[in-house]
Amino acid sequence: xxxxxxxxxxxxxxxxxxxxERLTLEILPEIGINLVESDEFTCCPDPIRLQGANQYxxxxxxxxxxxxxxxxxxxxxxxxxxxxxxxxxVNYRLKNDSQLKGKVNxxxxxxxxxxxxxxxxxxxxxxxxxxxxxxxxxxxxxxxLTGLKIAGHPGCHLLMPNExxxxxxxxxxxxxxxxxxxxxxxxxxxxTKADCCGVSLNLAGxxxxxxxCIQSKLIDAQLxxxxxxxxxxxxxxxxxxxxxxxxxxxxxxxxxNPIPVLYAIELLALAMGHSFEDIGYNLHRVKATVQGTV
Amino acid sequence: xxxxxxxxxxxxxxxxxxxxxxxxKCSTCSKFCPITQNVKKYNLENSFVTHLFEAEEHxxxxxxxxxxxxxxxxxxxxxxxxxxEAFTNLKEKSYELGYAPEIVxxxxxxxxxxxxVYGIKFSNLTRKRAGLKDIEKNxxxxxxxNLLAEKTGLQKKEGN
Lengths: 294, 160
Prior knowledge:
The structure holds two protein chains of two kinds. By secondary structure, chain A is α/β, with parallel strands linked by helices. Chain A folds into two domains: about 5-125, Glutathione S-transferase Yfyf (Class Pi), Chain A, domain 2 (Up-down Bundle), CATH 1.20.1050; about 135-285, Rossmann fold. Helices cover about 50% and strands about 10% of the residues of chain A. Chain A has helices at about 10-15, 20-25, 50-55, 55-70, 80-95, 100-110, 125-130, 135-140, 155-160, 160-165, 175-180, 200-205, 205-225, 235-245, 250-255, 265-270; strands at about 5-10, 35, 75-80, 120-125, 150-155, 185, 230, 260-265. Chain B has helices spanning about 10-15, 35-40, 50-55, 55-65, 70-75, 85-95, 100-115, 120-130, 140-150. In chain B, helix 7 packs across helix 9. Chain B is elongated and about 55 Å long. At the A-B interface, helix 1, helix 2, helix 3, helix 4 and helix 12 of A face helix 2, helix 5, helix 6, helix 7 and helix 8 of B.
């Protein structure tokens, strides 16, 4: 039986990682997930800057996106931690606060829409955890990623606020490692697993501080034996790819032994029998040859 | 021990987030805050959280945008306060008064022009290279978003 979701692509994936969008639409039907696209969605909007600009506008715009999926009677699947954070928080708050819901619907009435509170919003990893199940995923794997040592990076906005997202332990997250293991690879444990990738420091203009975040995480993963780092957030992905490319110029440890990043969808595609070439690994800034896989 | 008091915008923020007043400046949150850990001018003696709570107007309104809302401070606070929420409220004030980084005003402008925070023209160049079809602007969605911006009082003015 196929699981059906509205596919909330967000802004960053279609604009800067379109290859991930292509792979998602190609691979997920192979594990029983059918995605419905919509061109009516707008930016989620993001929880760091656009929430800060005007919380009422942020909430109403997010509620509009949720209302579009409600009209189709489908749950939303996101592929970005920022989108998940915004849409899940707004969905939760409006479902649990009738006064707030009334205020939001007063604005939505202007455009002929209404937030009803009838659907769920789930990140791709939550869909794997709650709806597909890792035991089922294991059975669907065609080419186990045996021998690959991968450090998982769940990312801050998928872990907190924990009472709303209820995805994983925010201090010592475990699910990403279980996902890596389900694909046949070896998860690498490292102390800075739940630490920030530094993207907001980059956006706030402190590139030096942002580079320190990238460097400390990647070197920690490397010292613990990782060949790759993996994430399911486009902002974290860009930090570990383009960000690492820049940081490595001054860090011999990363220049000589880079830790390429693989999106969760790319890992899944490899385990479903696709080659590194198929998944668009050549489009990455930071690459390393792994014996027997490239 | 000096008791932490939120100076700027204290009364307005307390109206929305009462828990912040029980902060007793133990610095537990700062040990986990990515800003205090990585931004040069901050350290455990003068952390991002305590600095911001004691800062005067202009400084608080500019630095607050470093906060990525990772909520490490919320997880670790022994007093159950929510500094992240206080910072989001400070960001709102900062945007309103024109102290937000220029990029935030540009993002709003771009969002209200095309419904996405990335310019469609440039996104389509990347998409072409990856062999994907172009994104097209959805006029109806953009119109709806602009109506919502008007209704919610979102300002579009230039930054300082």
